[in-house]
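Customer escalation, tier 2.

The customer says the design service returned an amino acid string that "doesn't look like it belongs to this structure." They asked us to rerun it and document both sides in this ticket. The original structure tokens are below, unchanged.
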């Protein structure tokens, strides 16, 4: 049973092919994409398409009365992170997203969607606002990763990401995450800890970019296509591994071909999930959120779970007991 089922107890119907779906436009079974399924590298290229709808495009079409809030109250306002208070079909919510640009000039202003530490601290300010006023939180993930420059490291990039992840795990409000395009590394995970994680059909979510992975494993960024296959970062892979709870269908040709239809599908999914999550007790939300992320991956404990023998101190590994054979 998927985490989505466990949390919301969703009603399921069937499509003409017999595969189960939660609702129209929401894919919960990777076999639904088996026919005509794009390669992982094609998915990467689609996720990076500059014409795809970005956070502000979605916010303007999905939410009403959006009031953007600025600044982290410490250093500055990071334009790569946007967020504020809005309404979703009459329900007040907090929405936070990573904003890319739709042109080279806008991408420069938005730092290509790569936040600085102050961006994540602004996000945390909004997370706390959601908790203070008991408002559901919606996050929109779309970044190649956090900004890796020296000035970001000087201002505590790693600490800001870690604190954001920690805060999201403990928020006593419903949290729904939507991956719009690229979900890159910890820069994405700082907005990606939720009760339900949805992704657009051609979105990606990975610990590193294919180029970065290829440079490490094969010493050449030209092996990025090979890395994309090995990393299992495409939508169907995210479903199979449980990283995403469901995929949101995109229009034919991709989300960049029809922003309105993409936003309508996202809105339908958000309304349904928030309606269901709002009926779950807070204690259960927190418990299941914890279990969701603890369940990733598989491991086997040796000897039936017995604790391994403690390692000898370094000096015992060098010196031998003089009473033993072969001692000093």
């Amino acid at each position: 049973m998927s985490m989505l089922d466990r949390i919301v107890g969703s009603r399921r119907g069937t499509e003409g092919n017999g595969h189960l779906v939660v609702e129209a436009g929401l894919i919960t079974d990777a076999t639904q994409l088996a026919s005509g399924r794009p390669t992982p590298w094609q998915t990467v290229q689609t996720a990076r398409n500059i014409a795809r709808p970005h956070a502000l495009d979605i916010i303007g079409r999905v939410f009403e009365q959006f009031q953007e809030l600025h600044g982290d109250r410490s250093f500055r306002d990071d334009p790569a992170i946007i967020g504020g208070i809005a309404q979703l079909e009459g329900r007040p919510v907090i929405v936070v997203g990573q904003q890319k640009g739709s042109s080279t000039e806008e991408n420069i202003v938005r730092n290509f969607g790569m936040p600085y530490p102050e961006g994540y601290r602004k996000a945390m300010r909004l997370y706390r606002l959601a908790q203070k006023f008991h408002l559901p939180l919606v996050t929109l993930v779309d970044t190649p990763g956090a900004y890796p420059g020296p000035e970001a490291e000087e201002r505590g990039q790693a600490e800001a990401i870690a604190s954001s992840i920690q805060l999201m795990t403990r928020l006593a409000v419903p949290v729904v995450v939507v991956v719009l395009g690229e979900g890159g590394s910890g820069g994405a995970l700082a907005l990606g800890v939720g009760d339900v994680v949805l992704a657009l059909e051609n979105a990606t979510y990975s610990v590193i970019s294919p180029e970065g992975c290829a440079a490490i494993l094969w010493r050449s960024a030209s092996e990025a296509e090979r890395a994309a296959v090995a990393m299992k970062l495409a939508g169907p892979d995210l479903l199979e591994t449980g990283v995403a709870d469901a995929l949101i269908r995109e229009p034919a040709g991709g989300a960049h071909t029809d922003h309105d239809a993409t936003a309508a599908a996202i809105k339908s999914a958000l309304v349904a999930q928030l309606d269901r999550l709002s009926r779950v007790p807070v204690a259960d939300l927190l418990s299941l959120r914890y279990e969701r992320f603890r369940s990733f991956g598989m491991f086997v404990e040796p000897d039936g779970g017995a604790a391994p023998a403690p390692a000898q101190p370094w000096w015992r590994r060098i010196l031998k007991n003089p009473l033993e054979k072969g001692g000093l």
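Tier 2 assessment: The sequence is consistent with the input. The radius of gyration is 22 Å. The domain at 3-294 is CATH 3.90.226.10 (2-enoyl-CoA Hydratase; Chain A, domain 1). Sent an explanation to the customer and offered a walkthrough call.
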